[in-house]
Design a protein that fits this description.
The complex is a heterodimer of chains A (115) and B (112). Chain A contains no helices and 11 strands. Chain A has 115 residues and is an all-beta fold. Chain A is globular. Chain B is mainly β. In chain B, strands 2, 4, 5, 9, 10 and 11 form a 6-stranded mixed β-sheet that branches. Chain B has a 5-stranded antiparallel β-sheet with strand order 1-3-8-7-6, with no helix packed on it. Classes of the chains: A mainly beta (115), B mainly beta (112).
Amino acid sequence: GAVVSQHPSRVICKSGTSVKIECRSLDFQATTMFWYRQFPKQSLMLMATSNEGSKATYEQGVEKDKFLINHASLTLSTLTVTSAHPEDSSFYICSATRQGTGIQYFGAGTRLSVL
Amino acid sequence: GQQLNQSPQSMFIQEGEDVSMNCTSSSIFNTWLWYKQDPGEGPVLLIALYKAGELTSNGRLTAQFGITRKDSFLNISASIPSDVGIYFCAGQSGGATNKLIFGTGTLLAVQP
């Protein structure tokens, strides 16, 4: 069964609104979670590394003020897309690293459509 | 961002055929991983490789960690229709971040 839960699976919003996506590790603690973005027919591109209890580390070119990440507990990280615009429409996927293995387990993804 | 070169880009095969795909990098990795992604879903881990030269199987899947640590291949034997999907390799350098660098993906279509 799934070890990483991501919610919601799909969201449609109006331009200018903010959207929050949750990522939970279900049966293990994850000090590190990752957020990816995937455009149609493309690979996963890492957006940021979410560290429990500290600030997220963003990849080059990713706006930290637009994509707010909070990792308040060892099992939950959230990504908030602020003031969403149509170009933010994409498939967002989170992953969590099982401690001691370095293996990333992925959520089922969130399809964001901004109208 | 950085991506690994994965080939072929797509494959259209008959059920029962064997499949091979590979991934190359200009950088050395400590871990190679192979994932499968179904449409509208997140990637699912198939095989993890931790040592140069390592050959690991998972059912009909076999993957190897290249000796140079810059490449890996995945073989699927006796393909079945449910093998359809996109296969991604991913390299991990290790260290504190455990970041993954993904390959460009191989789309596999299996004709029954």
